[in-house]
Model the fold of this input.
Amino acid sequence: MLAVDTNVIVRIVTNDDPEQSPRAVALFEREKILLTKTVLLETEWVLRFSYKLSRETVVSALRKVVGLQQVEVENIGVVAKALDWHEQGMDFADALHLASSTRAIQFATFDEKLAKLAQGLQAKEILPV
Done:
């Protein structure tokens, strides 16, 4: 199994580099790939801020990548839940933090928008700080 960096995923999703994009695709075709939550988190950020892709486009791209047969995702249940919440309007980082906190009963934040969204999605009891 081979873990990959954010830039490999970005090359596959954007196909923006005539040299690196085909190499990234070839890597995925010949190797079993491990995607960590942190790489997915950074990938979402890069696609949104650097490439100005819409939430819908980013969610779709990430779902396609994590759904590839040769890809294993660190904590896939957490990632899937975070993608669902992100699709419904929650920031992806917030969604991933919240989905990763399953051992906790409550989640404390100063972020009122996150608290409102999380309660609306019945994600977890949010404790305002």
Remarks:
- The chain is about 60% helix and 10% strand.
- The first strand starts at residue 2 and ends at 3.
- The mean pLDDT is 93.
- Helices lie at 6-14, 20-30, 37-50, 55-66, 76-87, 92-99, 112-120.
